[in-house]
Design goal:
The chain has 233 residues and is an alpha+beta fold. It folds into 2 domains: 77 residues, Arc Repressor Mutant, subunit A, CATH 1.10.10; 108 residues, 2-Layer Sandwich (Nonspecific Lipid-transfer Protein, Chain A), CATH 3.30.1050. The protein contains 11 helices and 7 strands. The longest helix is centred in the middle third of the chain and has 14 residues. The model has no long low-confidence stretch (mean pLDDT 93).
Length: 233
């Protein structure tokens, strides 16, 4: 990226941060992703080569640092002190987006893998019984090869599976991608989606009653949209 030719600190910071994808890569690091493959899951439309380039650039600029992995081989990426100072900036950007542009979603903004990755890392498995619980998701408007997902909740952890893990399904959730995305970002309540039939839940009453506590929404879902109703429609 060419510089702006200005001494202004806003311009100098923009030379590092204003390139496409950079804020989203930093968002993933803030949310706890540190391995390359996990970062890729958070930016699924970003090529591996571009992500690698961007990570190297941010490392050179002192925003992140690369460390040997704590477990297994390879490396992890972590924010430096300079990178951690960006957390409130990025969260405020997200709050602004939730308040003013959250509901403006076209078909190109809906991505089932990203949605499931986000739901997986925000799930609260401790809200389910202290045993293995399998929640299957079926998206009615997504090709079959990408329309079935499984969250395996066990104790304090939840794993995301893209292929059938082979366990008995305890709770099945059926919906279209837009409905589930609207629930996740806070545009549609879980109870309203269930009442209207836009979301179907099949399984024991005990698990259905705990669903809302277990399926934590986006950290920004509670922010009230300020867009005029006509624009949202």
């Amino acid at each position: 990226m060419k510089g702006y030719g200005q001494f202004c600190p806003v311009a100098k910071a923009s030379e590092i941060l204003a390139e496409r994808w950079t804020f989203l890569v930093l968002r993933e690091l803030i949310l706890g992703s540190s391995r390359f493959n996990d970062l890729r899951r958070g930016v699924p439309l970003m090529s591996s080569s571009l992500l690698s380039q961007r990570l190297k650039f941010l490392e050179r600029e002192g925003v992140i640092e690369r460390r040997p992995a704590r477990a297994g081989s390879g490396f992890e990426y972590h924010l430096t002190a300079a990178g951690r100072e960006l957390e409130p900036v990025i969260m405020q950007l997200g709050e602004w987006g939730a308040r003013w542009v959250r509901s403006r979603l076209g078909a190109e903004d809906l991505h089932v893998a990203l949605l499931m990755w986000d739901m997986h890392r925000n799930a609260r498995p401790e809200q389910f019984p202290a045993r293995r619980v399998v929640v299957a998701f079926e998206f009615t408007d997504v090709p079959h090869s990408k329309g079935h997902w499984w969250l395996v909740s066990e104790g304090q952890a939840a794993d995301l599976c893209v292929t059938d893990p082979g366990f008995e399904v305890d709770l099945l959730l059926v919906s279209d991608l837009r409905t589930m995305t609207a629930i996740w970002v806070g545009d549609l309540s879980l109870s309203a989606a269930l009442k209207s039939g836009a979301l179907e839940a099949e399984g024991p009453l005990e698990l259905r009653l705990r669903l809302e506590a277990w399926l934590a929404l986006s950290p920004l879902a509670s922010i009230k949209s300020m867009r005029p109703a006509a624009q949202v429609a």
